[in-house]
Design a protein that fits this description.
alpha/beta; five-stranded mixed sheet; elongated
Length: 923
């Protein structure tokens, strides 16, 4: 029978054993994932029935040998801290938070030292000597406390190691390296007691402890070793895919009493290799979906197809990109918990409560963005029922507020109601056990709201369960070790646990499409392979130095460096290609951004090695002929009806007419649909809010002096009230917003300065220019009607004028602008040069005000002028509309001029009502 995969070949070999030998055999594989595939292969080739062999991973095998149990890195940290406290004088002990910053790295180095069976005393003495050499020029009498502490730390490392090692062994637990060292110590007794045959299959890079175990058991005839290497890699002395196995073949001859098995010749076979580059990770996810559809045309069940993710963060985009025709898939990798929506919620809660305590522990001051981030979170918003609280925060510009104020707002909006989730979210975080209990309750409460029938709710439950387990772990660590004494320490440990945690997905391992990470692909073979993120820094992973041991020391001691790690990735890459017939290698072509990087060296190497060059394609985003298609809304009967309602009721305001000129779609959304911008918290005072405050302040200051000629003492009285009036309207408009510091304080001072400057200009006009000024109207609503022949109803023009005054026997209509306005923008050579364009919007507004005031009783047949006072260029004073240029312009608005203007307005209104002219967006 021809074996198509490595596991098929291994199964065929195992089935040559007798039934008794097979059932007593122990097969050791690089990982747990491959067990189910090997059992399936044995079942498919077996004739009859027999007991299956014992199939375990190398980690399980080593733990059995050492009689020790492995524990996770966080528990190791707590155990190490107990040891550290025991060997360090009480006054010199760091707290757990400080300790964890260096202890994690130290444990990793302990692990490497033990896995490679190095003499720890020699390694630490070497490191201490290197650190001392760095300070060789410093005389003993001139060393600082910092230098002394630094050198003392290196001197104490051997003691930390020895005590930690002894402590763990006494408890029957350990880290991976310690368990390997103990397994080697018990190797002889284990081999003597072993009666069954051991088969090591599919290994590549071994540490020193594994090498010693493999060689010894093979020499004692207790074990057989089956490699999986292609002749191309084995015979090429420079090929990294064969780096480790070449050495084993050369150096192990005297130890291993069997032929070197197996060397295959699959890589030289004909393969269809396509290299596809595309910008961004999301582009790769979409291409994966397209390729799967293509494969399904010839392999509908996809059982011999694997998607291998070079970057685990691509899992969800790939899942969402799969076609609906994929009805069975198996995900043999976990999704990182750090990207889990439930984890993001917990992180936001940590941020909210930590910052609240930092700002004011007594009043527990929240920041609105942190509160809204929680209340609007997708796992909270549907179940918390606090939308009205969100609206109050937005509409009243609350920025910082106490916890008591938040609950007061809730009570006002939802009287006599109990909201358990709201109370849990914003309860004080004071004691660590209560914080952890609170987090468990929050997650449990959300879970109770989710359905078992909805697929999205099922996924949300998987995310919640993952984080719930993390919180339970934290609780267990706290109860057992009692070392977490602050919120900062709790958050730091939580983040470390989350880095290790994964969301597991359920699936049928032997059917359908296989989606896996690089390490999960070991010893497995597929006919169709899609590999994503084949970029430098992803595949291979690149350099990562998280060790106290420098590169040259590692080389000297025989420890693996990034070069060896690159060779491991190289083996995995070429093993995926080894028996595959169709291969797609996807990489990100972007050289900038978070997930960017150069094309992987493996692709370049492959292009050089293969006699038949792979087919290389670059996919770019499909660009439309037009970057953006403007929105077009045809005028329906309902829209015309709404326009008639506006024209005959409230009327068209000058600003709505200029809004139509600026962008018809803006007019459509605001006036026809009556959609306003969503209310958000103004953390910094917006320009329009500042304008409203100045308008309101001037109205209040001038109202007592309406219809009387202004005198200097009137101005003086107004000046004395500026601070109080501005503050009043700031509080009225900005409500609970903070105005005592930062940008808002500057805006407050700017508003006062603008009003003060305005009054100084007024005072100068009265005293120096001898102007006779009588304010007639302030913030007055005016209107007029225009009759069009084609309409059987009048068109109402209505709006609010900022100020109308009589100055030196002339009516002056004033429009305040907080922005900058140039005098030239208010001049025309001829009234018929006024076209409905955005450049003329201010002139159109002024002439609309003049048209509305033309027949007002207060006019008294006086001449009318209209203009703008710009607070940004107050020194220019009143900027009048005029026909002509410069000082020679005619600024009086005559009745003839207004009649000509009405013709322009009528044309504009006819266009607005014309059903043949749709509302078309201006871009």
């Amino acid at each position: 029978m021809k074996s198509s995969t490595f596991l098929d070949k291994l199964s065929a070999t195992l089935l040559l054993l007798s039934e008794k030998e097979l059932s007593n055999a122990t097969i050791i594989l690089p990982n747990k994932r491959a067990k189910v595939f090997l059992l399936e292969s044995i079942k498919n080739q077996m004739v009859g029935t027999a007991f299956a062999p014992n199939i375990i991973s190398i980690e399980e095998f080593i733990q059995e040998m050492a009689c020790l149990r492995t524990i996770d890195s966080i528990e190791l940290l707590f155990e190490f801290y107990e040891v550290y406290q025991g060997v360090t004088p009480k006054g010199q002990c760091q707290n757990f938070e400080q300790f964890a910053t260096w202890a994690t790295t130290a444990i990793q180095d302990f692990n490497e030292i033990d896995r490679y069976l190095l003499d720890p005393k020699k390694v630490f003495t070497y490191l201490e000597a290197i650190e001392a050499l760095k300070r060789w020029q410093v005389e003993a009498s001139k060393t600082t406390k910092l230098i002394d502490n630094h050198l003392e730390f290196w001197a104490k490392l051997p003691e930390y190691y020895a005590s930690f090692y002894e402590h763990l062994v006494s408890k029957g637990i350990g880290y991976q390296g310690l368990i390997y060292r103990e397994a080697v110590n018990k190797l002889e007794s284990f081999a003597a007691a072993t009666t069954h045959k051991i088969y090591f299959a599919g290994f590549n890079a071994l540490n020193q402890a594994e090498e010693k175990i493999f060689k010894y058991l093979a020499k004692e005839n207790s074990a057989k070793i089956y490699w999986d290497i292609d002749a191309v890699f084995l015979n090429d002395p420079h090929h990294d895919a064969g780096l480790f196995i070449r050495r084993y073949k050369k150096e192990w001859k005297s130890f291993v009493h069997q032929d070197f098995e197996w060397v295959v010749n699959h890589f030289s076979e004909q393969k269809n290799i396509q290299i596809i580059g595309t910008p961004k990770s999301i582009g790769q996810a979409k291409i994966v979906g397209t390729l799967i559809e293509k494969i399904q045309t010839t392999h509908p069940n996809l059982e011999k197809t694997a998607v291998v993710l070079g970057d685990e963060n691509l899992l969800l985009p790939v899942l969402f990109g799969l076609p609906d025709s994929v009805d069975a898939l198996n995900i043999t990798m976990g999704y990182p918990s750090k990207n889990n929506p439930a984890q993001l919620l917990i992180s936001k809660l940590f941020k909210l409560h930590h910052n609240a305590k930092q700002r004011n522990d007594k009043s527990y001051t929240f920041y609105y963005k942190e509160v809204l981030a929680i209340l609007n979170h997708p796992l909270i918003e549907p179940y918390c029922q606090a939308q009205e609280v969100v609206q109050v925060i937005n509409s009243n510009n609350f920025t910082f507020f106490s916890r008591e104020k938040l609950f007061q707002l809730y009570a006002e909006k939802y009287p006599n109601s109990t909201n358990t989730l709201f109370e849990l979210l914003f309860a004080r975080w004071d004691e660590i056990p209560l914080i952890l209990a609170n987090l468990r309750e929050i997650l449990f409460h959300i879970k109770s709201q989710l359905s078992n029938d909805n697929s999205e709710d099922k996924m949300a439950k998987a995310f919640l369960y993952s984080i719930y387990n993390t919180i339970v772990k934290l609780t267990n660590y706290q109860e057992k070790y009692q070392q977490i004494d602050s919120l900062t320490a709790l958050h730091a440990i939580y983040k470390q646990i989350v880095e290790l945690a994964e969301v597991s997905f359920e699936g049928e391992p032997l059917s359908g499409l296989q989606i896996m990470g690089v390490l999960e692909s070991r010893v497995l073979d597929f006919e169709n392979v899609i590999i994503t993120s084949v970029n430098e820094g992803k595949f291979p992973a690149g350099k990562s130095q998280n060790s106290f041991l420098p590169y040259d020391v590692k080389k000297e001691l025989g420890l693996p460096t990034f070069k060896e790690k690159d060779a491991i990735y190289c083996y995995h890459f070429y093993h995926l290609l080894l028996r595959a017939k169709n291969i797609w290698l996807l990489y990100n072509t972007d050289h900038e951004g978070i997930d960017a990087g150069e094309k992987s060296r493996f692709i370049t190497q492959l292009e050089i090695e293969k006699h038949q060059l792979p087919n290389s394609t670059i996919y770019n985003a499909v660009l439309p002929e037009k970057a953006y298609e403007p929105m077009v809304i045809p005028k329906t009967a309902a829209i015309i009806e709404r326009l008639i309602a506006i024209a005959t009721d409230k009327g068209f305001s000058p600003s709505s007419l200029t809004g139509y000129i600026r962008n018809p779609i803006q007019f459509y959304t605001q006036r026809i649909l009556r959609i306003n911008e969503a209310e958000d918290v103004e953390e910094n005072i917006a320009a329009n809010t500042l304008g409203i405050i100045i308008h309101s302040a001037l109205e209040e200051l001038y109202t007592p002096y309406l219809n009387q000629f202004l005198a200097v003492h009137h101005i003086a009285s107004m000046e004395s009230k500026i601070d109080a009036v501005i503050l009043k309207y700031f509080k009225q408009e900005y409500k609970e917003g903070e105005i005592t510091k930062g940008k808002n304080l500057l805006a407050f001072e700017v508003a006062k300065r603008n009003v003060y400057n305005f009054l100084q200009v007024e005072k100068k006009a009265i005293t120096e220019d001898n102007d006779a000024v009588k304010v007639l109207l302030l913030e007055e609503s005016l209107s007029c009607e225009i009759q069009l022949e084609s309409f059987d109803f009048p068109i109402k023009i209505a709006g609010k004028v900022d100020r109308i005054e009589e100055r030196n026997g002339v009516i002056r209509i004033v429009d305040y602008k907080t922005g900058r306005v140039a005098a030239g923008n208010l001049k025309l050579n001829d009234i018929f040069a006024l076209t409905p364009e955005i450049a003329n919007e201010k002139i159109i507004q002024l002439l609309c005000y003049a048209m509305m005031f033309e027949n007002h009783e207060l006019r008294k047949n006086l001449d009318i002028t209209a203009g703008i006072i710009s607070f940004k260029n107050m020194k220019n004073g009143f900027l009048p509309f005029g026909i002509g240029s410069g000082k020679d312009a005619n600024t009086v608005i005559t009745s003839e001029m207004l009649e000509d203007f009405k013709v322009i307005i009528k044309l504009l209104i006819l266009e607005i009502f014309n059903p043949e002219i749709p509302f078309k967006e201006k871009v």
